[in-house]
Amino acid sequence: MNEHETMTAMTAVYDGAASGALARLDGFWSAKLAGEDVSRGKVQAAIEAGLATIDGVVCRKAGYKLRGGETLTLSLPETPSDAVAEAGELRVVAKDAHLLVLDKPPGLTVHPAPGFPEGTLVNRLLHHFPDMRHMAGHRPGIVHRLDKDTSGLMLVALTEAARLALSADFAARRVSKTYLALVHGRPDRPAGTIDLPIGRDPRHPTRMAVVEKGGRPASTSWKPVWTSPDGSA
């Protein structure tokens, strides 16, 4: 590690009963940091570099088995965003010193990706709020996403403390999201719940789908609010 490298330190308590089979040290932190653009490989590298502790003692074994009740810390190097700032409209619904609430229009991608480095919401955010560049990760301020063609409200963190707090809320499912969607056909029930794991579609890597292995738990409750007269939508 470079002596001038900035680190983000995190602390958590492992609750064996609540976390189920996630007993490996690297598995716990990978799940904790899900959605923050932190790969399991990066977590393992940090652990092996001596940047993880268990009850105050450094642990360099990524596969260390947790029993439950341990206090864990992990430090990760911060990587300032290299995204290019671009002028563009931001529909700000609310703002304070810590976060923004934005109305994302359809057709706008949220953050840069390989082969698509420009023309995203993040590029616009860096133009309007240049200090966001110093936040950790390659998606500064972003704690959740909407698909390119989906419009709606998004929370964006303006500070690192707000980003970590909001990320923890999303990871712990303390945030509920409501979508209005137009679908083909008419359900044969008045309401329902879809409780199936979601991951990358193996046939279409740019899409998400219900998968048999490797998906993340996902639960969606639905109910129709309108039906076309012919039942087609």
Give the arrangement of secondary structure elements:
Elements lengths: L6 E7 L2 H4 L5 H8 L7 H9 L3 E3 L2 E2 L12 E7 L14 E4 L3 E6 L16 H8 L23 E6 L2 H12 L20 E4 L2 E3 L7 E3 L8 E4 L11
Antiparallel strand pairs: 1-4, 2-3, 2-4, 5-6, 6-7, 8-11, 9-10
Helix pairs in contact: 2-3
Main pleated-sheet profile? 4 strands, antiparallel
Coarse structural class: alpha+beta
Range of helix content: 10-25%
Mean pLDDT: 85
Rg: 20 Å
Q: Estimate what percentage of residues fall within beta strands.
A: 15-25%
SSE string: EHHHEEEEEHEHEEEE
* Neighbour order of strands in the largest sheet: 1-4-2-3
Q: Count the strands? A: 11
SS summary, helix count: 5
Q: How would you describe this protein?
A:
The protein is an alpha+beta fold and 233 residues long. Helix content is 18%, strand content 21%. The strands form 4 sheets. A 4-stranded antiparallel sheet has the order 1-4-2-3. It has a 3-stranded antiparallel sheet with strand order 5-6-7. A two-stranded antiparallel sheet has the order 8-11. A hairpin with a 3-residue loop joins strand 5 (92-95) and strand 6. Helix 2 (25-32) packs across helix 3 (40-48). The radius of gyration is 20 Å and the shape is globular. The protein starts with 6 loop residues before the first strand and ends in an 11-residue tail after the last strand.
